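Morning F.,

Quick status update on the modeling queue. The single chain you submitted on Monday has been processed. Sequence for confirmation:
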Amino acid sequence: MPKFKVYNAEVLPFGEVAVIVTTAWFNGGGYPRAESFLILPDKDHTLIANQLSFDATSFKDSPISLDETFMLDEALNQAKIDLQQYISKFARENGIVLPFSGPAVVGYEWNHLALLWMRGNHNNALKAIAAKSELGELSDQLRSILSLPVAKVKQI
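Structure tokens below.
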């Protein structure tokens, strides 16, 4: 079971995408934790980071299982809420009419973060995620890519 997932999310058709990273784990006391990291496609590549938790180890007498899958889904839902708020504000400020559907979200393997790093996209946000995340697996993976070279791209 993956403890973190990576997604791209369409903000507006034909525009740069947002990046979402979600995590899930159980702390030493058996309590579930999750994180959502949303990198916005604005000029500063703003990072919105949230941690989710429950003060319970299970949902007693419920068919819902309080597990990593549930927590990853909740973290993704939180990132979608944050993204929808950003999109709504952006559309309102720029007089854009939005479709009724929410942003399209597509999952990727973790190495998508390495590709973003090497293309020079969101580098400060990726460094911040490595520093903020309490999930060692994610922080370790990110730290391993922070030393990779950034590609130089020029039109020919």
